[in-house]
Design brief:
Blueprint: H1 8-20, H2 24-35, H3 43-62, H4 70-88, H5 101-116, H6 126-135
Helix pairs in contact: 3-4, 3-5, 4-5, 5-6
Length: 136
Amino acid sequence: MHSIPNSQSSLTDIRTRVWQGIPPKFRSTTWRKCFGNSLGVSSETFQRAVERSELAKLRLVEIPKTDWKDSDRRWASIIRQIKDDVSSTFADLRLFRHESPLHEDLITVLQAYANYHSDLRYAHGMNVSNHFSFKY
C-alpha cells in the first residue's frame, strides 16, 4: 500500500489525477473494490433484469390502461419517475440529456435495478448514485 506524500506538489498531483478520473481499463476493478457487489449481480442476472423490465414496458403498451393490474400501474409510475430523474441528472454537464448516448444507458440500469430489486422500488435520487457506475 502506498502512503500519500505530504508535500504541496504531491497533493496538487493527486488532485489532478483524481479530477482526471480512473482510466477505463481499471474502472470495473476499482468500482468492485470500492463498492463491492452486495447484490451478487452478474452480467447474466443483469441481462435477465433488463429483459424483464423490457417485457414489463412492452406489456404497458400492448394492453389498454383499463386492464392494467396494480403491478402495471406501479411499473408505469417507476418508468415515468426514472425518465424524469434521468433528464435532470447533472443537467449542467449534459451527460444524460435525451440526445446523449448515456441517457438510455442510465435508464436501462435504473429500470433493471428497479425490476431486480422490486421490493425496494425506485426512489428519487437513485439516478445520481448510478451515475457513478458510468463514470467509474
